[in-house]
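So, can you check this record?

>
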Amino acid sequence: MKDHFLMDEQVVGTPLLVKSDVEYTRLAVETAQGLDGHSHLVMYLGTTTGSLHKAVVSGDSSAHLVEEIQLFPDPEPVRNLQLAPTQGAVFVGFSGGVWRVPRANCSVYESCVDCVLARDPHCAWDPESRTCCLLSAPNLNSWKQDMERGNPEWACASGPMSRSLRPQSRPQIIKEVLAVPNSILELPCPHLSALASYYWSHGPAAVPEASSTVYNGSLLLIVQDGVGGLYQCWATENGFSYPVISYWVDSQDQTLALDPELAGIPREHMKLPLTRVSGGAALAAQQSYWPHFVTVTVLFTLVLSGALIILLASPLRALRARGKVQGCETLRPGEKAPLSREQHLQSPKECRTSASDVDADNCLGTD
């Protein structure tokens, strides 16, 4: 209270942005006006690993990440952030100098759907040039932007400007993959939006669970009979679903006929095979580990038996040595203990022991 005496009222609210496994070092804030004429709060945040996050605060006081840029090849904290609105850039300070980063990278959004879903107040879709452009003036009526809902169904519904005009299951391009039978095939899916949820489909149905699994967004497919065909990775965001990437999987032994519904779609042959396990190798899910289990069990039993034998043999040796030493402490009837050490050295052989570390004085007795 002494340091912040002007804050005499209770602070009520929720965090604007929650991001796990990230530590922010610097923050810069500005306001940007969208096509709707409303002002939107934009935050630029530097991290300890040299990344720059751009977040936009929505109308419900919740922020979403629009862009994440890794500035430095080696992890290094961002030491300073300075906005330059007239230059349209953000200056980032670090140990090696200063980097100039544009406030918006609208060209990375290649379609109207991606441009609208980004909900970046600096970017809007131009239907004439069919590109996502930097918003220079707020009174461009023909440009498309939806900051409140981020729904491209109505924003991209008119004019040949995006993939939303086609049926949702119809991809823009198909990547053909020739797989080896009885192998594991990895089909990657790029996650272009951190706000979208992703899932895979096999034609009009879901992928078969018996021969596939999803790991880190990629589809791991066991190439067997009947698993070929069209595989698509879908993204769902704000109630809108669209295919991110499409694969047509063919087997070397059995080539599938072309689906008439996919006619006219450009195809790209994958030059590098995606097969991670060569053909003929046994599948990991079907391998038998019984011989390995028997071998390990036998070896473990032998090692344990040897250890027990060693542990039991050590006390027996100690008892035998102790018994021999104790036998010399008792003199025979009629014998007397020697009066001097010279006499003791000439003691009978029965008093000698095989243990080298036993002191000869143990044979001394009392009269």
